[in-house]
Write a structure and sequence with these properties.
With about 150 residues, the protein is mainly α. Helix 2 packs antiparallel against helix 3 and helix 2 packs antiparallel against helix 4. The longest helix is centred in the first third of the chain and has 28 residues.
Length: about 150
């Protein structure tokens, strides 16, 4: 229940300087967790991001100008997090969705190399490949968020 234990210093650093960051994933013992439960947890994280994006967007429609900017940005970031979470790169929720469908032999291999997902994402970020990939996605996210908040494309 303590949100501060999910703060990752490297993720916060990347968010401040590169406008892209992450938090620590909750600890999950993959060897003991059933695949159906893993799928449920991962999909709940993704779906809650989209629900929050729509909720913040609709609240921004009726909010006064003081809270509009905060709610608009919350909608934008929630929608962004929902889309990024779908990617099957550890430690994102999409990798847990993929784990739920893998056979046992591949499941164990994927867990063993799970830690390298963060290094992969950092490499893409430092080499400036990730921002190039993200540019069309940012345009799409902004367009959808504007539709949610303002009701027009």
């Amino acid at each position: 229940m303590n949100p501060f234990r999910y703060i990752d210093p490297v993720g916060i650093f990347a968010f401040i300087f590169f406008n892209f960051g992450w938090t620590r994933a909750p600890f999950i013992d993959f060897t003991k967790m059933r695949k159906k439960k893993l799928f449920t947890y991962a999909s709940f994280g993704i779906l809650s991001s989209f629900v929050l994006a729509f909720l913040y967007g609709f609240l921004a429609r009726i909010a006064n100008p003081v809270f509009f900017d905060v709610l608009y940005r919350a909608s934008l970031w929630s929608f962004t997090y929902g889309l990024i979470s779908i990617l099957p790169v550890p430690p994102l929720d999409g990798s847990r969705l993929l784990l739920a469908f893998l056979p046992t032999k591949s499941y164990e291999w994927y867990i063993k190399f799970n830690v390298y997902g963060i290094i992969f994402m950092l490499g893409l970020l430092v080499l400036w490949i990730l921002p190039l990939i993200m540019q069309p996605l940012v345009i799409f996210i902004t367009t959808v968020t504007n539709y949610i908040v303002f009701g027009n494309w």
